[in-house]
Design goal:
Isoleucyl-tRNA Synthetase, Domain 1; 5 domains; 4-stranded antiparallel beta sheet; 26 helices; 20 strands; elongated; binds zinc ion; EC 6.1.1.16; cysteine--tRNA ligase; aminoacyl-trna synthetase; metal ion binding
């Protein structure tokens, strides 16, 4: 025992990593460089993303930001395993919302109250048309005057060259022209209708619908200030908020953990603004409150426009940030000062405040809602690059002025621009694509695969030729998954357990030099993907590495299809699938592949499910009918067989009846099932044929036997006159033909013969009587 105690474990050495490990870095807009990502609280990551201003359908420009942020979020949550708290707002108080809500309300009102076409209505539309010409064509010198003087000759003078020149001055020129022309022809149609005594509501509606944009602008100008029902300003954004979330769901974008809505945070906004005033960084002027950029910038270590210092003083950006109703505001000390609180005018939603009735400015909304959930500091703030100045710079100034802190946000991430076919997306260029339109052309998976080809902050060009490449890549991935699944399935069912048989009857493990090579490639790719994701979530490089792994594995399958290592293939395919799940490309439930729901090319749930549901419903109808009719048990069993062997086979569903009475459900290609069904039917037909033949033979023998019984035992011996001459009353011979009495021993035999015939004859009679 003593010697055992004296023996000690040898010294243990801490392993040294073979190479330096990459750390996660983010392209940080606060430095314009890649900075190491250090969350303030270990694994916890707090994140605020600027959400949508809800007044219209979301387009691919919005998708650029929300999909990019979704990919980063998924990588942080599912790859780096951070506990992320993702907060996003909905801006439902905004100048654009107010104007659109009022316009829609006034236009709908006009349509509802218009019962027929008359000269007054045509005049109203024509006045609106003229006003629209004056205001919308003013940027192009001389255009408004010529258009009002003679529309047709003005239109004729707009050659492609002239139009191109005009677009340089006003990018919306062509769109304006289109709207004016549509309305102009509707006006002349209406005049003709009226002259022909057709003053129906249909004609009136046609005029109004064709002139909606034009009429709405003038209605709002005239009556906008009379709109004061708060419900109008709530219902309009609520509708578009729903649409936004439908789009995000269709794109498989994760829902925010916490969602805030501006209209529900007005009291917090008022308190926040008051504190900024108290801290000396804001002032009230004529019912509005402005941020005092002059006092703030440089005071107490504060900097205004930390993200884009060079944009400070950019009037166009500042005005755009203040909103279309903002230009009416007055009283700022400097043109850099922006509104925290806007004194409302009639026709705008209002809330009471210490500065009078008003509503929050745009930028303050995000500062307040982000602070309300995440407090005085957050790890990540994000949004589209367009928001960097002034929105995000103003947010930072407000929050840092409120908290008197130096760094409210540690990492500011900005999603890059989206172009369409090389050009900025714009309604006037007709390259404007809503998310719904894009989803009609491509699946959500294809769009996401396309987005993964661009790093989140890069400029993206959404073009058809690139989408074709993406679809090709998707097919490559799908084929890879199908091939691996096929090999694995085969090995599962062929009894080899993945080992190869050798000519001498032994088996081998299939881990040779080619397998070692493939495994080492996999490890290298895993390292490379990790390095790419650490490099500010560089998805294009990560996807390249993954696709390269797929092609290496395809080569391995091709060269050794009879002897591949299934465990290794499973390892590669599971890893590729896991990366696709992390990127939101594959379903979470999938082991290998994109998953069941996304196997559909169009991803349409209804198209996928309806055939199965019809079968289910039809079977239910049948069972209920039979139960009501007290149908015998075998009819139920027959119906079950038809369901299994016919209806489900046609749907590619295989039900394997198990010993425990339940069925194993499998999705198998329809063709395979039909082939199996035909084989089964052929075997059954053969069995049936044999059964029928046997039955016929039995019947023949029975009839033969029956035939023997046709003769009555009474007559059995009477025909045998060569043997017998006299019979008793039962027909039993008493004397031979020679007149001698039949011997006793012979009589006994004859009696036996008689008895047998009696039995046969009775049976015969019974059968005959039955018939
Ligand atoms: Zn924001």
């Amino acid at each position: 025992m003593a010697s055992e105690i004296s023996r000690q474990q040898p010294k243990w050495h801490l392993p040294t990593p073979s190479s330096a490990q990459p750390v996660l870095k983010f392209q940080n807009s606060l430095t314009k460089t890649k900075t190491d990502f250090v969350p303030k609280r270990g694994r916890q990551v707090t994140w605020y993303n600027c959400g949508p201003t809800v007044y219209d359908a979301s387009h691919m420009g919005h998708a650029r930001t929300y999909l990019a942020m979704d990919i980063i979020r998924r990588v942080l949550e599912d790859y780096f395993k951070y506990d992320v708290l993702f907060v996003q707002n909905v801006t439902d108080i905004d100048d654009k919302i107010i104007i659109r809500a009022r316009q829609q309300y006034l236009f709908n009102n006009l349509k509802q109250t218009t019962q027929h076409l008359d000269a007054a209505l045509i005049n109203t539309v024509e006045d609106a048309w003229k006003a629209y010409v004056s205001s919308k064509l003013e940027k192009v010198a001389g255009a408004a005057e010529s258009a009002l003087k003679d529309w047709d000759s003005f239109l004729a003078s707009m050659t492609p060259e002239e139009t191109a020149k005009a677009i340089l001055v006003d990018e919306k020129f062509k769109m304006t022209l289109g709207a004016l022309q549509t309305s102009r022809s509707a006006i002349s149609n209406a005049q003709k209708s009226l002259a022909a005594n057709d003053s129906s509501k249909v004609q009136a509606d046609a005029l109004l619908d064709a002139s909606q944009d034009i009429v709405s602008v003038s209605l709002d100008k005239e009556h906008g200030s009379e709109v004061n029902d708060p419900k109008i300003f709530r219902d309009f954004p609520a509708y578009w908020e729903d649409k936004y979330f439908e789009d995000m769901e269709a794109l498989n974008v994760r829902k925010p953990d916490i969602q805030t809505r501006v209209s529900e945070y007005v009291p917090e906004i008022i308190t926040y603004v008051q504190k900024i005033i108290d801290n000396g960084y804001a002032y009230e002027a004529q019912g509005s409150v402005y941020f005092d950029t002059g006092r703030y910038d440089g005071h107490d270590g504060h900097h205004y426009a930390k993200l884009e210092p060079w944009s400070k003083g950019n009037t166009a950006l500042i005005e755009d940030g203040e909103g279309s109703l903002g230009s009416k505001l007055t009283g700022q000390k400097s043109k850099n000062d922006f509104a925290l609180w806007k004194g409302s005018k009639p026709g705008e939603p209002t809330w009471d405040s210490p500065w009078g009735a008003g509503r929050p400015g745009w930028h303050i909304e995000c500062s307040v809602m982000a602070s309300a959930v995440l407090g005085e500091n957050m790890d990540i703030h994000s949004g589209g690059i367009d928001l960097a100045f002034p929105h995000h710079d103003n947010e930072l100034a407000q929050a840092e002025g409120y908290y008197n802190c130096k760094q409210w946000v540690n990492y500011f991430l900005h999603a890059g621009h989206l172009h369409v076919e090389g050009q900025k997306m714009s309604k006037s260029l007709k390259n404007f694509i809503s998310i719904q339109e894009a989803l009609k052309l491509y699946t959500a998976r294809q769009i996401r695969l396309f987005f993964l080809q661009y790093q989140w902050n890069a400029k993206m060009d959404f073009k058809q030729s690139s989408m074709m490449e993406v679809i090709q890549g998707e097919t490559t991935l799908k084929n890879f998954f199908d091939n691996v699944k096929g090999v694995l399935h085969k090995i599962r069912s062929d009894g080899s357990r993945g080992a190869s048989e050798l000519p001498n009857g032994g088996v081998t493990h299939r881990f040779g030099p080619t397998e070692a090579q493939l495994l080492s490639t996999l490890q290298a790719k895993q390292d490379a993907v990790h390095a790419a994701l650490c490099d500010s979530i560089n998805t294009p490089v990560a996807m390249d590495e993954i696709m390269n792994m797929v092609s290496q594995t395809n080569k391995y399958i091709a060269t050794g299809s009879k002897a591949v290592n299934p465990h290794l293939l499973n390892k590669v395919a599971t890893w590729v699938t896991s990366m696709m799940k992390i990127f939101g490309v594959a379903d979470n439930g999938a082991d290998i592949g994109f998953g069941s729901s996304s196997d559909q090319a169009n991803g349409n749930v209804e198209d996928t499910l309806m055939p199965y549901l019809h079968t289910l419903s039809g079977f239910r109808d049948q069972v209920r009918r039979m139960a009501r009719d007290n149908a015998p048990q075998n009819q139920f069993l027959e119906a079950c067989d038809v369901l299994r062997d016919t209806q489900l086979v046609d749907l590619g569903v295989s039900l394997d009846d198990q010993e425990d009475g339940s069925a194993l459900v499998k999705l198998v290609p329809r063709e395979e099932l039909i082939e199996a069904r035909e084989k089964k039917q052929a075997i059954q037909a053969e069995k049936e044929q044999k059964r029928q033949a046997a039955q016929a033979e039995r019947e023949r023998k029975r009839l033969e036997k029956l035939e023997k019984g046709r003769v009555s035992p009474m007559d059995l011996f009477k025909s045998r006159t060569d043997e017998f001459s006299r019979f008793d009353d039962q027909g039993l011979p008493t004397h031979t033909k020679d007149g001698e009495e039949v011997a006793k021993s012979r009589k006994k035999k004859l009696q036996k013969e008689w008895d047998t015939q009696k039995k046969l004859h009775d049976e015969f009679n019974k059968e005959m009587g039955n018939q």
